[in-house]
């Protein structure tokens, strides 16, 4: 649920190397697609260790930044397998879209999470005992061998197996008794595929906030089974997982509308880390100018991990270079710390009054765009967001639990041409 990702030990697959390019993403997809059926469904829950990741797709870092589109993944899988045979993997592709759509309906969940992280980080500076417990957790010094190994793996590689993410979050919340928001922040800052929606809502799910009252308890026997005995924290973990509580309620709100196509006349195309596949955007005409917004801090006052920062930075840089070649346009860089000033200078220099960008789902990029839009308007610049068909088809069904979307998957797939 946190991510889903397919090699068991029998494949001899080495530790994954995530090259942030479309070519590398498609090569990995081609290598995996034939195993997305029963082989995947039967072994996907096993964490064989970071040297053996072939039982999962490990596509999520590329999908996260849309170096690889969900529709490309679905096409590669459904041309090789029936829907029935690959349904488990297909569902995992849609989990991210579900989480994004759910958060689009309730953006205040993200804002409250960001506020809570800031408050908890401030507490770290004032409460020595609390800071010590937190530091032990994120530096892998709790004394719980599996948890400590996973903390180190996350910081070193920027990746954890999906099942392991659930165990880690459960131990963080129910055994270590640390605030879920700081755990979600730790993941979001370090994961190559760190996504504001799926990460935030998955941590809420483990804690019993997303599906009210339903929690996830990490059990030693389950960890021992699915790590094939590499870890067995018998007697070290909480035996109960009482649901977390919150005073806030988050009623269903409307989705944004009118963003399915854009880019008429003379305009500038702004690329962000949210969508690094510009040539496939629904644009009426080619852009007149091109710029890229440097990756942001993932909504945290704390530092982004090096693997995640490098991956997102190079993903955007490669996408900008590809777009420059595709449209024969020079590259421009926009500093997020001088965002409005940078966009105004770019627009004046290249003679544009409209800036088009791929719709950024709820998260840091959307926050920056939303807060800057009035200032841009005062400079005579309009900001136009374009939405991909995949999101337009998925998000309306992400109003409650995932099973509401699951029931509509045949309809959504038909809408995508499958």
Plain-language structure description:
- The protein is mainly alpha-helical.
- It has 3 domains: 9-105 and 395-415, Serine Threonine Protein Phosphatase 5, Tetratricopeptide repeat; 109-226, DNA Cyclobutane Dipyrimidine Photolyase, subunit A, domain 3, CATH 1.10.579; 268-387, Rossmann fold.
- It is 50% helix and 5% strand.
- The protein has 18 helices and 5 strands.
- A 5-stranded parallel beta sheet has the order 3-2-1-4-5, with helices on both faces.
- The longest helix has 23 residues, at 83-105.
- The two termini are 24 Å apart.
Helices and strands in order:
Blueprint: H1 22-32, H2 38-43, H3 60-64, H4 70-78, H5 83-105, H6 108-126, H7 128-138, H8 145-157, H9 162-175, H10 180-190, H11 196-207, H12 220-226, E1 268-271, E2 289-293, H13 306-327, E3 333-334, H14 339-350, E4 354-358, H15 364-378, E5 382-386, H16 389-394, H17 402-406, H18 409-415
Parallel strand pairs: 1-2, 1-4, 2-3, 4-5
Helix pairs in contact: 4-5, 5-11, 6-7, 9-11, 10-11, 14-15
The unreliable regions are 1-14
Order of helices and strands: HHHHHHHHHHHHEEHEHEHEHHH
CATH topology of the largest domain: Rossmann fold
For the terminal residues, how far apart are their CA atoms?
A: 24 Å
Provide the number of structural domains.
3
What is the general shape?
Answer: globular
What is the mean pLDDT? 94
Structural class: mainly alpha
- Topology, number of strands: 5
Question: What composes the largest sheet?
Answer: 5 strands, parallel
CATH superfamily (homologous) name of the largest domain:
HUPs
Q: Can you list the strand order of the major beta sheet? A: 3-2-1-4-5
Binned strand content? 5-15%
Radius of gyration: 21 Å
What is the level 1 CATH name of the largest domain? Alpha Beta
Our count of helices gives 18
């Amino acid at each position: 649920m946190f991510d889903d990702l397919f090699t068991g030990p029998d494949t001899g697959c080495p530790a994954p190397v995530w090259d942030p390019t479309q070519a590398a993403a498609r090569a990995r997809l081609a290598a995996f697609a034939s195993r997305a059926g029963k082989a995947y469904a039967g072994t996907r829950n096993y964490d064989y260790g970071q040297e053996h990741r072939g039982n999962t797709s490990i596509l999520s870092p590329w999908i996260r930044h849309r170096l690889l589109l969900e529709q490309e993944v679905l096409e590669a899988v459904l041309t090789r397998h029936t829907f029935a045979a690959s349904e488990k993997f297909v569902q995992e592709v849609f989990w991210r879209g579900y989480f994004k759509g759910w958060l689009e309906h309730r953006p205040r969940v993200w804002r409250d999470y960001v506020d809570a992280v800031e408050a908890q980080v401030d507490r770290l500076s004032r409460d020595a005992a609390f800071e010590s417990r937190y530091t032990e957790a994120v530096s892998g010094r709790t004394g719980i061998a599996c948890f400590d190994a996973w903390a180190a793996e996350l910081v070193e590689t920027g990746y954890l197996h999906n099942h392991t993410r659930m165990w880690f979050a459960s131990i963080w919340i129910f055994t270590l008794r640390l605030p879920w928001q700081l755990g979600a922040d730790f993941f979001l800052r370090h994961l190559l595929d760190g996504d504001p929606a799926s990460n935030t809502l998955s941590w809420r799910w483990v804690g019993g906030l997303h599906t009210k009252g339903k929690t996830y308890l990490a059990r030693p026997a389950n960890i021992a089974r699915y790590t094939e005995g590499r870890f067995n924290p018998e007697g070290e973990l909480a035996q109960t997982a009482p649901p977390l509580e919150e005073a806030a309620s988050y009623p269903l709100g409307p989705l944004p509308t009118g963003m399915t196509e854009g880019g008429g006349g003379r305009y500038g195309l702004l690329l962000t880390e949210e969508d690094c596949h510009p040539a496939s955007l629904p644009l009426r005409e080619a852009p007149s100018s091109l710029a890229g917004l440097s990756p942001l801090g993932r909504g945290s006052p704390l530092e982004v991990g090096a693997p995640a920062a490098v991956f997102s930075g190079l993903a955007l840089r490669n996408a900008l270079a590809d777009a420059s070649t595709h449209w024969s346009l020079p590259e421009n860089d926009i500093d997020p710390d001088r965002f409005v000033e940078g966009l105004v200078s770019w627009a004046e220099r290249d003679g544009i009054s409209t800036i088009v960008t791929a719709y950024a789902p709820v998260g840091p990029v959307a926050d920056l765009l939303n807060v800057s839009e009035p200032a841009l308007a005062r400079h005579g610049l309009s900001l136009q967001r374009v939405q991909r068909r995949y999101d337009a088809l998925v998000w309306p069904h992400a109003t409650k639990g995932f099973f509401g979307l699951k029931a509509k998957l045949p309809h959504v797939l038909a809408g995508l041409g499958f």
